[in-house]
Structures are given as C-alpha cells and as structure tokens.
Amino acid sequence: MTSLEHTACEPSRADLSLIGFAGRALRLAYRAMRMRSDRAAMQAMPDHLLKDLGIARSEIDHYTSMRYASDADGMDFRNAG
Length: 81
Prior knowledge:
The protein has one domain (3-79). It has 4 helices and no strands. It is mainly alpha-helical.
C-alpha cells in the first residue's frame, strides 16, 4: 500500500486548515483518477472476463462509482486480464 493510499484509509480529522483541505482534495482527485482508470480497464475487458467477475457490462459504471467503490477492497481490475 502506498503512502497516499494509506492516508486515504486513515480516519479523517476535522481539520479546516488549508493543508487539511489540500490533502482531502488530493485524495479525492487520486480516487477519481483511479475510478476512471478502473472503468476504462473494465470496459476494455471481454464479456467472458466480466462474467467471471460477476459483473455485467451495464453495471460497470455502478461498480466504479465514487459511492460504491471502496479503497479497502484492494481489487485492481487493470491486472485481471
């Protein structure tokens, strides 16, 4: 686990300083970039691999949304092929 991923797993503090805001913004941007990357990797997968994962092509957006995805899962779809 990288140090950036480790900081994302730590409980957030009620830090209203500029540094706290910048840290939260960076974590959110990193997570959004990861979601887009995972979504693109899953869209590139053939249907039989998605079926092995138990995901229909129409569900990719749902599983890679910011609300659903969790950093604790540790699934990396980019290496599933």
